[in-house]
Specification:
single chain, 261 residues, alpha/beta, Rossmann fold, six-stranded mixed β-sheet, four-stranded antiparallel β-sheet, 10 strands, 36% helix, 25% strand, globular, binds adenosine-5'-triphosphate
């Protein structure tokens, strides 16, 4: 266990005064919110407001222009490389396209992080791969290539790979992008089921209202115009009670645009 990690900290993630830029281009500023352990936390907002950018900062791909992101009380960006790696090893990430390696079978894709980061032997890895595939409903698909299975199955296989190292936090960028509503709904159910059964915290970027309400118990709403968060909390609460009209309007597809209830 990392020396600086505080296991008693209820917040899996704390975002403090965060400012996100690409060069001089400001994307978001003054972001402040907490993700509690076990939350399914939704990053919401209209197209181009910076949802993916925020997620990329949260998984350490980009450094913030200002502010902090703390994991179990430890600031990621001021930590040494070794501590950053040990934090990253506790995360599972799935990107927008599923992003499996096309030249590898599903089993090889899922085994890859295990081979990279663990000293598990071959049999152990084979069993763990089979278990992860079973968790996402893909038992028996070990030897299939990504091109041989459907889009929805690819997403589920991507999820199995994200689960490879038994993560404490799972990050998803638009997990159901490109899926039909039924498959998207099934993927939502699976994400919720896996987070509940493993106790993992989930951080998810989506603008799908159905997903936001089906699985999110907490979240943050980003605005492209003011370039800051308009609200944070439970999406179902924000829908009726957010003090920001734009949030109520967005979450109700324009049906609740007047004063908060
Ligand atoms: N690598 C980059 N360099 C410069 N600008 C970028 C980069 N990536 C994204 N942007 C810009 O940052 C802004 C936010 O993009 P981002 O993809 O984070 O938004 P988003 O809310 O996830 O959008 P969407 O819902 O459409 O996927 C956009 O104006 C985008 O053009």
């Amino acid at each position: 266990m990392n020396s600086e990690v505080n296991p008693d900290c209820d917040n899996a993630i704390e975002v403090r005064d965060l400012r996100l830029q690409y060069g001089h281009k400001l994307i978001q500023k003054d972001l402040n919110f907490n993700v509690q352990k076990g939350d399914v936390f939704v990053i919401m907002g209209g197209s181009g407001c910076g949802k993916s950018t925020l997620l990329k900062h949260m998984i350490g791909l980009y450094s913030p222009a200002q502010g902090q992101i703390l994991y179990h009380g430890q600031d990621y960006f001021s930590a040494c490389e070794e501590d950053q790696l040990s934090m990253r090893m506790r995360w599972g990430v799935t990107y927008q396209g599923g992003a499996l390696f096309s030249a590898m079978t599903l089993a090889e894709n899922i085994a890859l992080p295990m081979q990279q980061y663990k000293d598990w032997d071959k049999d152990d890895i084979r069993d763990r791969v089979a278990y992860k595939l079973a968790l996402v409903g893909l038992s028996g698909y070990e030897d299939y290539y990504p091109s041989e299975i459907s889009g929805g199955m690819n997403k589920r296989a991507g999820l199995a790979r994200a689960l490879a190292l038994d993560p404490e936090i799972l990050f998803f960028d638009e997990p159901s992008a490109g899926l039909d509503p039924l498959s998207a709904g099934r993927l939502d159910d699976l994400i919720l089921e896996l987070s509940q059964s493993s106790g993992a915290t989930v951080v998810i970027v989506t603008h799908e209202l159905a997903s936001i309400f089906a699985i999110g118990n907490n979240g943050v709403f980003l605005d492209a115009q003011s370039r800051t968060q308009l609200d944070t909390g439970a999406p179902s609460y924000m829908l009726r009670h957010s003090k920001a009209p734009l949030v109520r309007e967005f979450l109700s597809r324009g049906e609740i645009a007047s004063n908060p209830a």
